[in-house]
Structures are given as structure tokens and as C-alpha cells.
Amino acid sequence: MSKDATKIYVLDTNILLHEPLAFLSFQEHDVMIPMTVLEELDHIKDSKKDVARDARVAIRAMENILADAAPEQMTAGVSLAGQGSKEHGPTGHLSIYTDLLMEVNKQVFTSNENDNRIINVALDMQTTHPQREVILVTKDINMRLKAKGAGMKYVEDYRTDQLIDDIKYLSKGYIKVNGRFWDTVSDVESHTEGRDTIHRIALNQLPELYINAFIVDEASEFCGVVESFDDTHAELLDLGVERLMSRQAWGIQPKNMPQAMALHALLDPHIDLVILTGPAGSGKTVLALAAALEMVVEKNMYDKIIVTRSTPEIAESIGFLPGTEEEKMAPWLSAITDSLEALHHQDVNTSGSLSYIMEKANIQFKSVNFMRGRSIQNAIVILDESQNLTASQLKTIITRCGEGTKLIVGGNLAQIDSNYLSAVTSGLTYLVEKFKHFSGSSTIMLDGVVRSRLAEFAENSL
User: Fold this and answer.
1) 146, 162 in Cβ contact below 8 A?
2) Strands (DSSP E) found in 23-92
3) Per-residue H/E/C for 255-305
4) At 381, phi and psi to the nearest 5?
5) Which of 118, 141, 108, 144 is nearest to 41 (CA)?
């Protein structure tokens, strides 16, 4: 491939904070990092932001490649051959653009804002390399608009880790069969294992399956979960609709079929990761807490409950509020404490105050910032508001979970507060699709607002 046929990608800072090794993801094309980006990474790496670690990882990774390069080589580009996944295919080059010395007459934006300086670099590269496609990559929507308005021909979001093109294709965790399930299948072998009934069904009679997916029918007469499948047959555990709907956890009973399926996954000791998505008021937090209390207090299956969530500004530092870590987290975890109070007052068998229940269940409120470096054993970890986290940040939390730990991840993709994430690029979306085929995980998209008729009207009408 000729040099002119390859592209030049100019990366914004937020790309390297989103994915520190992003510069290795552009195959045979060249990647340019403006000096302004290095300045921003340097400022962030020593901050108290959760993305400080990502900044340090990005800096170290680039230093490993550019350490032995002369200044002229850094400007011209150092080969990425042998780096990451590219060692078996065509590779591009990594270079640093020293925009600090850019001539004034080359600058479209004359103000010294970092975004403007980065756009100036991309525009200059577009002018000096007219034979090549120069692309500015940024997750900042406003920056993309500014760049296009200033004359940048190609501006893109970073989509290498984007697994779906439209949120409507996101896995729901269950598959709905039209009509009655038993009218659609004929080649069935059934057997019992204890109290459970397993159906072995020919794969060509079923829709596309994945492990732990639920199958329900339109008539609400059948609900099963995929236990296993091979090239010819699938084995479904018959859950029984009435039995499923009558199941309880800490006094909470499901109000619809998605909630019933979610409760089944939450209480299943063989499922290490449960992902709950859905609109506000669909019951994600209440179900997670009810199941956690049931398994910790009533069944003694786990030692404690750790509750955490992302704070604004992509898990920004919890700041300088007075008090302990748990007291600082209180404003961010009010949704959790509200749900705890609702569960406490609803359970007629519960004695003692709310603080007594929290002490008995050993409920701990932790900041996402301080989850890094820990190894959490034999606990239930509830991660709320996960739609505001990147895939890299979610990976950090998941890898903290040690033996005997169950992770419950909840989020509403319609309520993303991050400036750099959308529903399709959210770490929650990435998690749903990436873990879809993992035998130790289960996903349920809750639908229907059960909080109140006022909340339901607002969710559906506003």
C-alpha cells in the first residue's frame, strides 16, 4: 500500500483518556499526537480524577515507543511495528506535532484554548498533506462541530470499541417468541433434575441464542433460560411462569416478567455478573438491593455489600467534603439509601432501625476512585449509574472482584451525563455486548416504569 493511500489520524486528549492504547488501533494508518494533548495528559496524570491513571498509562505506552527516537524521528514518525495486535499486519507510525511553534498565519483559531490548538494542528496537516486523508478524532461533539466549521474535511468519533451501531440492537437478555412457545417447537426431549425440568430442543426451531439468555413467549405461558447449546441442540431450564413471578427477595416480588427474570439471575449463585439496564423507575436499584440483602442477611452466602457509583465528570474526585469516605459519598448514593429505606419499611418481618439493617448486612459505600487496586472477596458489589463510565473504567472495577464476589451493574442509557459518551459508546453498552457470551453473566433490560404512575407518564410522555 502506498503512503498516499494511508490516512493520518490526529487524536484529541479525550480519546486517550477513553482508551489509553487507542493510538495502536489504526492498523496501517499514521497517528499524530499534538503537543497540546501531551500537555493535557501531563496535567491530568497528577490530578485526583479517576482518569488520571488512564493518562499515565497512555503516557507510558507512548514513551515506550518514542523513548529512543531522535527529535526529528518523533516529528517524522516512529514505526508501530510489533506493538500490540499489529505485529502480524501492516503498521503505521506514531508522531508528535510541536504545535507550540506553529506560525500565526497557519492558525485558523488564534485564541490559546487547547481545543482550538488541536484543531489548528489537524487543519495544518490537512493543508500540508493534500494527497492524504487527514482525520481529527475526538469524542467532544462541540469540538467536532467547530472543526468542521473551520474547514476540517474529516472529523470522527472513536468507534474502535463500539460494538453496535444503534442502541436498538443492544441485547435485552431475553428473546420473545411470537404466540405460544410450545406451538413453535416439536422436536423436544425433556427430563428432570431434582425439581428442575430441562428441555432439549433442536436449534433450528429456536431464534439465535446465547448462554443465559431467557426465552419467553408472547402469551406469557413459558419462560426458560438457556443452560447450554451446541451446533444442533439447546438445553433450556423451564422456570415456570407462575413460580418465577411468585419468587421473593427481602419482601420484594416482581411486578412484571423482566423483573422476574432479573430476580432469578440476581439470586443465582452461578452468575457472577448481572447487568440491569432500563429506564428510570424500572426497579434496577430496588431489585439489586433486595437480592443482595436476601443473600447476605437471610442466606449468609456473602459477607458484605459494597455499593458504589460513578460521580459526575467521568468519575471525578469526590472532592473535599468533610467527613469519611462514606459520608462524602452520601450525596451521590442517595438513590441507594432511598431504596434501602423503602425496603426497610416494606418488610414487615424486619426489626430494628435502618442503621441496624445496614450494619447487619455490612453495607459499605465506596467511591469508584478508591476501588482501584483492591481485591474484593466474598461480597456483593452493586455499581449504580454505570452508563457514565467508559469500558476501561468498568474493566478496572470488574477486575477488582475476587473469589466468591458477585457484581451487579445497573444503568440507564438514556441518562448519560458524561460529555464524551453516548448510548452506543458507553461502557455499559460495551459491557452488555462483550459479556453476552460469557457463561458467568446475565443481562436483563427492564421495561415499564413501576415507581409510580407519575414517573411512568413522565418517562413515556416527556
Assistant:
1) no
2) 30-34, 78-79
3) CCHHHHHHHHHHHCCCCCEEEEECCCCCCHHHHHHHHHHHHHHHCCCCCEE
4) -110, 120
5) 118
Phi–psi pair at 202, nearest 5 degrees: -60, 135
Is there a common fold for 3-156 and 254-461? yes
Q: Are 212 and 265 contacting, i.e. CB atoms less than 8 angstroms apart?
A: yes
Q: What's the CATH number for 254-461?
A: 3.40.50.300
275 contacts 432 by C-beta, under 8 angstroms: yes
**CA dist., res. 421 & res. 427, Å (int):** 8
8 Å CB contact between 276 and 409: yes
Taking the CB of residue 156, how many other CB atoms lie within 10 A of it?
Answer: 12
Cβ burial of 157 (10 Å; 0-12, 13-18, 19+) is middle
Confirm if 162 and 425 have CB atoms less than 8 A apart. yes
Q: Which residue has the cell 481529527?
A: 136
- Cα dihedral: 274, 422, 451, 239 (round 10): -30
Domain 3-156, CATH number (from 3.30.200.20, 3.40.50.12780, 2.10.260.10, 3.40.50.1010): 3.40.50.1010
State the pairing for strand pair 441-445/273-277.
parallel
| Dihedral class, residue 373 (left if φ above 0, else alpha if ψ from -120 to 50, else beta) | left
Burial of 391 from C-beta contacts in 10 A (0-12 / 13-18 / 19+): buried
User: What's the whole-number average pLDDT of the chain?
Assistant: 85
Number of H helices, E strands in the chain: 17, 18
pLDDT digits (tens, 9 = 90+) for 104-160: 667 777 778 999 999 999 999 999 999 999 999 999 889 999 999 999 999 999 887
- Burial call 301-316: b when 16+ CB within 10 Å, e when fewer: ebebbbbbbbbeebbb
For residue 70, the tally of other CB atoms under 10 A from its CB is: 9
Domains of the chain, by residue range, sit at 3-156, 170-238, 254-461
Look up residue 156 and give its three cell numbers: 470522527
pTM for the whole thing?
0.78
Distance from the Cα of residue 216 to its chain's centroid: 26
The predicted-structure confidence for 20-58, as pLDDT tens digits, reads as follows: 999 998 988 999 999 999 999 999 988 767 678 889 999
C-alpha cell at 161: 470499541
Query: What value, to the nearest 5°, has the Cα angle with vertex 461 and ends 460 and 462?
Result: 110
Q: If you search the block for the grid coordinates 431475553, which residue do you land on?
A: 174
The rounded distance, in Å, linking the Cα atoms of 205 and 234 is 10
| Strand-pair category, 78-79 with 93-97 | antiparallel
